[in-house]
Design a protein that fits this description.
Elements: H1 4-11, H2 16-28, H3 30-36, E1 39-46, E2 49-56, H4 76-88, E3 92-96, E4 99-108, E5 111-121, H5 130-148, E6 171-175, E7 180-183, H6 185-193, H7 205-210, H8 223-228, E8 233-239, E9 242-253, E10 256-266, H9 268-308, H10 312-335, E11 342-344, H11 345-362, E12 367-373, E13 377-379, H12 380-401, E14 406-415, E15 418-425, H13 439-451, E16 455-460, E17 466-473
Helix pairs in contact: 9-10, 10-11, 10-12, 11-12, 12-13
Length: 475
């Protein structure tokens, strides 16, 4: 599928700065499409002639070009008009079959790097009105800003937060002093919700907003720049439970500020939903943190009980139970530090290895453990099962296969949602016997088969010792 990036790479005619300028243009040219009620096409010169690198349809009117034409070569008549616009270094217009075609050189650092075509229906689907006349004036200013290299603006946040406004959401036209020349019906409604009852036209927009801010409110530092139209930036107005997102686009002529347009959108409901999600995430993290603390308390109690037990078999059983609880606590500790219900399992596995090494030291086993590969991210519902499986396999190798010391190699390979895991030791091996039917083995088989949707096998390693192979399907 053709994209601007691929077309520019094949062209090879523009440097990195010029290519970035075109990406910046198409990232922000929806404002021009909306305010002019037009389709926009970007033509890039290649060895095969001019090619359409991008297309923007207006949100304020029906599109004239319904087909996907990105990647197509320019028609002969368009190529001729593009060349004339580049030759004259000026905007060129042509009316064909009731459609106005406007060709605008895209200038960057004094050089023409592309041509933007504005395709406008001569009888568009709108009723002539003050809005029409106002938008026409703004459109012509933006066209000349593209041709003079003053648009798009650099270092401008484009839709940093969900709900960034467009012209179709609401638009206000300001003069150079920040006085409202025209406000669309949607914008009037937005500011009425903020508490403004008077007509916006003729008022200084910044003063209107200041009069409705709550007494102890701390507005965003960028808000004055946006409301006066002095900088191309985004901000938000929040007062009396209402939040309106605003974005300004200065209108310039040869560096002189003529005024600005300020787009607005009521994002009260969006921000409320986001706040609910944040509260939910914080609640989940707090729950995981408390579960981790409770499990660590249970683990400490089992450890104390194990120390008081006089029977060696009971002491060993309590020690194993304590380690299993500790492993579950490690997973919840990882979950308490993220907003997602996933765990970076490599960090969990690092804690598991430290725990197993403590077992080896306690048992006077000189055991080294080497890990290669990566587990990647594992969802919460499977992270606990995976941690338990690894704990059982590695602990069993330390306690039984390497009672006299030795080495353990853990190898993990992740391919999409498949995890291939091998745990190999150089101990006594399993000989001709299969793993027993003890509690640890039952736990491993049950978790691998049912929780991890995988399979597991035990075999004698070629170099001696035991090799455990597992393939799991992670969600």
């Amino acid at each position: 599928m053709p994209t601007l990036t691929k077309i520019l790479e094949r062209s090879g005619r523009l440097n990195a700065g010029e290519r970035e300028r075109l990406h910046l243009l198409i990232g922000d040219w929806s404002t021009i499409a909306d305010i002019s009620f037009s389709d926009l096409l970007l033509y890039v010169e290649t060895s095969a002639g001019y090619v359409i690198g991008a297309h923007s349809r207006p949100a304020t009117a029906a599109t004239i070009i319904e087909a996907d034409i990105v990647g197509d070569r320019a028609a002969r008549i368009d190529s001729h008009n593009i060349e004339q616009a580049c030759r004259d270094k000026n905007i060129f217009r042509q009316n064909r079959d009731g459609v106005l075609h406007t060709y605008i050189p895209v200038v960057y650092k004094g050089s023409i790097i592309a041509v933007m075509q504005v395709v406008t229906a001569e009888v568009p689907d709108r009723v002539p009105s003050q809005r029409h006349e106002n938008y026409e004036e703004i459109s012509q200013t933006l066209f000349h800003m593209v041709a003079s290299g003053e648009f798009p603006f650099s270092d401008v946040p484009l839709g940093v937060r969900r709900g960034a406004p467009r012209v179709s959401d609401g638009v206000i036209h300001l003069d150079s002093e920040g006085v409202v020349i025209y406000a669309s019906p949607n914008s009037v409604s937005h500011f009425r919700r903020l508490g403004e009852e008077k007509p916006l036209a003729g008022q200084v927009l910044a003063e209107v907003v200041t009069g409705h801010l709550e007494e102890y409110a701390v507005p965003d530092e960028s808000l004055p720049l946006v409301l006066t139209g002095k900088a191309a930036w985004n901000s938000e107005i929040t007062t009396h439970g209402v939040t309106v997102s605003v974005r300004s686009v200065p209108l310039l002529e040869n560096g002189k500020r003529l005024g600005a347009i300020v787009m607005s959108r009521d994002v009260t409901e969006l921000r409320r939903q986001e706040q609910q999600l944040l509260s939910k995430d914080a609640t989940i993290r707090e729950i995981n943190h408390r579960v981790k603390n409770n499990l660590q308390t249970v683990s400490a109690l089992l450890r104390l009980q194990g120390r008081r037990a006089s029977n060696a078999e009971i002491k060993e059983a309590l020690g194993q139970a304590q380690r299993r609880v500790e492993m579950i606590a490690l997973v919840h500790e990882g979950l308490s530090q993220t907003v997602d219900e996933v765990v970076e399992f490599d960090s969990v596995f690092g804690s598991l290895l430290r725990m197993v090494r403590d077992i080896a030291v306690t048992s006077n086993n000189d055991v080294s453990i080497d890990f290669t590969g990566s587990f990647g991210k594992v969802r919460a519902e499977q992270a606990t099962a995976l941690a338990m499986v690894l704990n059982e396999i590695i602990s069993n190798a330390v306690e039984h296969g390497l009672s006299a010391g030795g080495e353990i190699q853990v190898r993990a390979a992740r391919t999409d949602n498949l995890l291939h895991l091998e745990v190999q030791d150089n101990g006594v091996g399993i000989g001709d016997k299969m793993p027993g039917d003890g509690l640890g083995t039952k736990i491993v088989k049950t978790l691998v088969n049912h929780e991890l949707d995988g399979r597991i096998s035990w075999e004698n390693a070629p170099e001696g010792g035991t090799l455990v192979k597992t393939t799991m399907r992670l969600r």
